[in-house]
Structure formats: structure tokens, C-alpha cells
Amino acid sequence: MSQKNKKTGFITRLLLGSALAFGTAQAMADNCYIMVHGHGTNGTIKSGTNQPALDYWSSYNFSEYAGNSAITELISGSSDNYAVVGYNSTDEAGYPWWRDETAGEIARQIISIRQGYGDGYIHPEANTQCAANDTFWVVSHSQGATEMMYIAGNALPGSPNYNTAYTASSGVSVDFNAAISGIAGIFTLGGAITGTEGADRVCNGNWLDSLINAAFLGQDCNQSVAWLQTFDSYAVKNYIGSNLAAPVYVMGGYKGFPGFEGASSALIEGEDDGYINLASQMSCAGSGKRHLESDLNDYNYFLGIQYGSPIFRCNDSNKGTPRTYNMASVYTDHDAERNAGIKYPSYTNIEDGITCGNGRSMAGRINSCL
Known about the structure:
370 residues; globular; two-stranded antiparallel ribbon; 25% helix
């Protein structure tokens, strides 16, 4: 193990305490952040400096986010490593999250990275490829969070799709168990954990939805988009077991996109990050498109006055998927979630939330908490 400076953050101390309690403590290792991108990227391309999956974490749709990077925020102030997972999530491919080309490919790459073979990408930062003896964390954004829920939720015996991804015609054996066993934790940034109402409206919307989509999102209802709808028949929570093979720490954004693109929020009820409902990002029980207040409590109102007890709570004991934990609700949009474009956003303290890293980007919060 390299002699790098180590830090012991809040989440790491929790895990270390648990390991000590069961007599399984090990020497502190470097962190390795395995990065799983979201929808719309062909991460299978690794041709010279053309590395879409790597670029995903620093590219930007809005000029004010230029020059920022989630990877830089993750490894800032430490000497940790990272690895990039690339799969084809483009509309042209149209692969749902349960496909072998998506979930299967992600799992195989995670296994290879954890064995110390590197990720096959050219890292701009020297000496940041992961080693086999690192402590492994997964950082996933958007559809990447849905992928990780499917993989982690089918990595334990007895789960409905145990070690199985699918082609168009049959099941394929994939060792989800080997990919997830021993992963310290999975972070989700603006994850489509219970889908997005944006996909509902693209696939089943009215004429106004179609106009807004054409102007600002440009999506079509291919299979990859259809399987990101919020209806139960598409929700990953209904295709996994009653437990996850690794804990999942969820972060949600609730800021619309800058400028005219902010009209995309018109497709979505309640608070959202410009693309995904906050209820879905936070893995809240119930509908992924329900209204939530910033503090993740929904109250009754009369003439604008709040009254009564909350009719809905999204604490750690009332989640839509098992073993998921609130980490943060951050005033940031879907684009800034993946590139740390808003470095010092405001935030809302949430029930059972993890407060380390307050005021930092989502990637910065992870850095502060480990």
C-alpha cells in the first residue's frame, strides 16, 4: 500500500466502528472512487483522448460551469484514486438499465478495476489509477444510480434477478455479487432511483409536454428513456431483493437549470433538479413524482398556511428502496451535480441526513465525509 496521507471522515469512521465491532478491522487504505455516468453517453469509446465517460464528469452544458470537475472535487486535498466506468447509455443504443450492455458491462468493469487492472482511460492527474488494495466506493449520477440499484439489489442470493442481466431475448449470467461484495458504499448524485416524470411526459405527455421536450430536452421515447419512467412497472425497486449488497448514500438536487433551459422543470411536479424529481433522487417511498418540500416533509396547507402533522416523511426508515440513507439535499441542478459546477451551493438540512460537507458540491461533500 502506498504511503499516502490518510484521512478518516464521518462515514469511514462509521464503517470502521462497525468493522471493529465484528472483529474485521483492516489497515486504512487509499479510497478509490468508481465513477458511473448517467444517460446519454457512449462510454465504450476509449480512443486516444476521446474519452466521453471520463469527460462526463467535467463537461458542461452551461458556460458558468466551465473548468469545474467532480473528480477534482473528490480527490482534492487527499491522495486518493479514481476509476471511470463507461457503458453505452445513448438514445441511439436505447438500452434499458437491466440490459447486459448496461448493468452487465458496469459490473464487469467494476470487477476488473477492483482486481487492480485500471480503467483503460488516460487520467489527467498522475498516479490516480486504483489499486487492488484500495477501499472502493461507487459514485453514480442520474441513470448510473438506477444501474447501481439494480446491480446491488441483485447481488445477494434470493434476489429476483440474482447475478442476471438481460439481452433482448434472454438472461445473461453476470457476477453482481463479485462486483459489489466488499464495496464500502455507493453514492448517488441526482439519481433516477424511482424514475423521472420527465420521461413520463416524453413517453406519455400532452402537446405542451412535447413542445417543451423538443425545445429543451430533445428526448425521444426509446427503451432507455421508457425504462426511466416513474410507473411501478418500470421502477428498479420492483426488480431487486429486500436488501442491497452495499449501503447507498443518496443526494438530491432541487435547483432548476439556468436561463431558458429552466423551462424543463415545467415537465416535473414539485421540486426537481431540472430533470429528475427530488422524491426520486432521495429514494423516497411512494411515487417518484410526488411533491416534496425542501426538508423532505409534505404538510397540509390552508390559504397558504401550513398546518397539521406531516402526511409524508422521507427519513431513513421510510425509503422506497432498502438500505438507502439520506446524505444531503443540495441547491444544485442536474448538470452541476456531475461536474461540481456549483462549488458552494446552499442546502437544506434533512431528516436523518449526514451533515459533513455542508455548503460543498455533491462531490465535495463526499470528499469531506470520507
